[in-house]
Amino acid sequence: MLQAHLGTGERAEAFYGRQVHPYLTAAMRDFIRRQSMVFLSTADARGHCDATFRAGPPGFVTVLDDRTLAYPEYRGNGVLASAGNLTENPHIGLLFMDFTHDHIGLHVNGSARLLSDQELRAAHPWIPTESAPGRHPVLWTLITLHEAYVHCSKHIPHLEPAPRPLGVARTRPKDADYFTEPAPVPVAAGPGQDLPLTGPEVFGSACDSARAHPSAGS
Description:
With about 220 residues, the chain is an alpha+beta fold. The chain has six helices and seven strands; from the N terminus they run H-H-H-E-E-E-E-H-E-E-H-E-H. It has helices at about 1-5, 10-20, 25-35, 80-90, 115-125, 200-210; strands at about 35-45, 50-55, 60-65, 70-75, 90-100, 105-115, 140-150. It is globular, with a radius of gyration of 23 Å.
């Protein structure tokens, strides 16, 4: 065990005993209800990991009770990376971070399953119809908590909330193009010259790799 190797076992046991809970304390539940963002981690059946981010109005992650949370899944790019992983591997990690007031974080680890909007509301009819104005959930992720514990304030930066500027033209590329590379420019061949290879002949290994791992990037 790494704790034994590095001599941190005693400190770890003290942390487990004081900070790690198999349920959400009242302070944890109140904290989650105030948060407008959460970071998620999931993995598929092969252990390939995915980290992502969710945001919404404060309380968009719903506290159903001291051992159960739920958050909505909306129509997006169709990749469904986190939801797809959860159909193969139910383990999920959530990290709530307060960057603006108390500068503290909360880890929640648990197991998850997907429910339709109708299924969740049949069991919990008090959930608001529109957790995000104008948007309706396609699915809900229902999380059964295994453990919850603090993320200390050290090194958490202070961020000032600010509205997005309205009516200002964006100079950056659109989201879909932000990290892409421009397509190669065709080069006309001169007399007796061959055209440079720009298709699958050059990128065959990458294409083959993507075909071998159809879930990559999803």
